[in-house]
Specification:
Length: about 170
């Protein structure tokens, strides 16, 4: 072992921003978590943006882009058609380009409420939201019962791979 980072891990970039001053977020851990998920999904040379927003902002985004007049936990906006995500990434990567996969918006307030309801930590719930958003950017859909079950299995499988030092997000 050379001590050099794995090529896929070194080339994936995750930009984490916080537009919600009320919640402390460990941005480095969020980025490491997202990079792990991207690597396990076979991505390299990927750029993903993760934005933590207020419930008010999440409601505004959900209304504007999905025509749903309520807040939600996670929104993911792929840059390209997610069904073509892996093919598009492979083609652009061969051309030497870093590919912007898309943007994920997360509501920490929703995570806090849901974590309390499910009796899990807020960090665990936020980790699931990060995973959920990346799966959406990768072409997964939860708009049918089958799609929801498939996505949940993929989330559970990826979340089992998370090392303890990356789990603390808040």
């Amino acid at each position: 072992m050379t001590g050099k980072p794995d090529a896929a891990e070194a080339l994936n970039q995750v930009v984490v921003t916080k537009h919600n001053p009320c919640q402390r977020i460990r941005k480095k851990n969020v980025a490491a978590l997202a990079q792990l998920f991207l690597k396990k999904l076979g991505y390299s040379k990927i750029l993903v943006s993760i934005v933590f927003v207020s419930d008010h902002e999440m409601k505004r985004l959900n209304q504007r882009y999905l025509n749903h007049p309520w807040s939600t936990d996670v929104l993911a906006f792929p840059l390209d058609d997610p069904r073509l995500a892996i093919d598009t990434v492979s083609r652009r990567r061969r051309m030497g380009r870093t590919v912007f996969l898309g943007e994920i918006f997360i509501s920490p307030r929703r995570a806090r409420v849901q974590a309390k309801h499910l009796k899990v930590s807020m960090s665990e719930e936020l980790a699931r939201y990060v995973c959920h958003g990346i799966l959406h950017l990768s072409g997964y859909s939860d708009h049918t019962r089958y799609g929801e079950q498939r996505m949940r299995r993929a989330e559970d499988q990826l979340l089992r791979l998370v090392p303890a030092n990356t789990r603390r997000i808040v």
